[in-house]
Write a structure and sequence with these properties.
Blueprint: E1 10-13, H1 18-28, E2 34-37, H2 53-68, E3 72-81, H3 102-113, E4 120-130, E5 136-147, E6 163-165, H4 177-180, H5 185-197
Parallel strand pairs: 1-2, 1-3
Antiparallel strand pairs: 3-4, 4-5, 5-6
The protein binds inosinic acid (IMP).
């Protein structure tokens, strides 16, 4: 049975990525849930060694739920390119290296696409809500679009400047946070989570 999260609960956000934290906080806020970040609790980041987004999201959520003794929400997400068979995918953060150099990661995507005319790209987000007793609920969202070059815009984070969602003239990097948030893979996964688990 799907487990719900009661309004008034404190939830650990198991992410150390500021861009993601801001987006998840905005999504959770209307539901009367108090959030605290894994960073604020001093929780370590686990090794993300699952083979897919959902597995990595669960791994991060369980690590935070068990260490914090509270329900925890984690996102595992990434940028996927059709011409690269879905890469960088679950390796999206790793392509930016330890320095988190996203201009460099975007340049690598463009280099590897080469002359391929297939510019289809998408973002995936898996959200896992986990409890310290070992129960978890997982939801996946996706937004489709085009990998553009050169990158455009300085808003957002990660691969936002090279992603133009279908039906829009702006990249995520050119959109304001208010424009981007409802369109995202994360918002779509969260809508499923809210319908199933939140009051
Ligand atoms: P994770 O922390 O392992 O889930 O890393 C996800 C990576 O995917 C991030 O570091 C970003 O590079 C990328 N990513 C995920 N969501 C977005 C987004 O909304 N915009 C841009 N990049 C994203």
């Amino acid at each position: 049975m799907v487990r719900r999260l009661a309004s008034g609960t404190t939830l650990v956000l198991a992410s150390h990525n500021r861009g993601k934290l801001a987006e998840i906080e905005a999504l959770v806020q209307p539901f009367g849930i108090t959030v605290i970040s894994a960073g604020a609790l001093g929780l370590a980041e686990p090794e993300e060694d699952a083979p897919d987004f959902a597995g990595n999201a669960r791994l991060k959520a369980f690590a935070a739920a068990r260490a914090g003794g509270l329900p925890a929400l984690a996102d595992d997400s990434g940028f996927c390119v059709a011409a690269l068979a879905g890469a960088p995918g679950i390796h999206s953060a790793r392509w930016a290296g330890r320095e988190r150099d996203f201009p460099d990661a975007m340049a690598r995507v463009e280099r590897e696409i080469g002359g391929n005319p297939d510019r289809r790209a998408w973002f995936i987000s898996a959200l896992a809500l986990a409890w310290p007793d070992g129960h978890a609920e997982t939801f996946v969202g996706r937004v489709d679009g085009t990998a553009v070059w050169p990158p455009r815009g300085t808003n957002g984070f990660g691969y936002d400047p090279m992603f133009q969602p279908l039906g829009y003239a702006l990249t995520f990097g050119e959109m304001t946070p208010e424009q981007k948030r409802p369109l995202t893979h994360r918002a779509r996964a969260f809508a499923l989570l809210a319908a199933a688990c939140l009051d």
